[in-house]
Amino acid sequence: AYERFGSCGERVLGFCIKFLTTDPTHGAGFPGNAAAATAATTDMVFLGLVSLLDPPRVGVDDAVTVCRAA
Fold first, then answer.
1. Closest CA to 61 of 50, 52, 69
2. Which are the contacts of 27, defined by CB distance < 8 A and separation ≥ 6?
3. pLDDT per residue as tens digits for the range 16-54
4. Burial bucket for residue 19 (CB in 10 Å: 0-12, 13-18, 19+)
5. How far apart are the C-alpha atoms of 70 and 66, rounded to whole Å?
6. CB-CB contact of 69 with 23 (8 Å)
């Protein structure tokens, strides 16, 4: 799904969840050190993808024309 939507020019965002503990034997959830940051980004549960249309900004057509002419 990511490749299909991405190849059509859409922005694709993935979402996941992880519950952090406040149990004192496991630290304070996310104390801010490197080991905690690594732990916070592992063992996540994938929730799904969201696809967004991101239309070109004003003036992009002119910029592309100038680039092609160069």
1. 69
2. 21, 36
3. 998 776 665 555 555 556 666 666 677 889 999 998 887
4. exposed
5. 6
6. no
For residue 16, the SS3 value is strand
15 φ, ψ (degrees, to nearest 5): -125, 140
* 50: nearest Cα among 19, 23, 13, 4: 13
- DSSP 8-class letter at 5: H
Report how far apart, in Å, the C-alpha atoms of 50 and of each of 16, 64, 68 are.
12, 28, 33
